[in-house]
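User: quick one, fold this
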Amino acid sequence: SIPELGDVLCRWMDRIGMPKAALLGNSLGCQIIAEVAVRDPGRVVKAILVGPTVDPQARSLYRNGWRLLRDIRHESLLSIVTQGGDYLRSGLRRTIRTFQLALADRIETKLPRMEMPTLMVRGEFDPIAPQRWAEEATRLLPRGRLVVLPGAPHAANFDAPAALAREVLTFLQQ
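Assistant:
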């Protein structure tokens, strides 16, 4: 579940001696960061949410599956192969179950409680986190700012790393 994945992140941070940090997550990672930020706000100095899921207007396997199919045409072949390999290694049952747990998690209820500075990022061609949802999610954040990466897909961290890094470094230096 998202809370369990949040627990894993916190345990990892403890294990490596990192009591707090700026955290960046893509897609499902946004939900995990939001979970940790709300449950233990002292751990998250700043948050960077790239391609946040799940859009409340598309809370179904069908709608998100359709958005994922539309996104594929914008992702690089290397990104598709890498992500496809991850899904294969996880197995169909676990992939679907994780997807169901992501759909059940309501990030929109957590965003208003994220008091730390938060950078919301979406790729220009991201149908999974459409512009309307990115704007809505940013408005829910007490200290949020939205950046759109030109030409980038949902996995902007994979397919537009230089543009993302520039935005993140600027945000972290503020």
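User: anything notable?
Assistant: The chain has nine helices and four strands.
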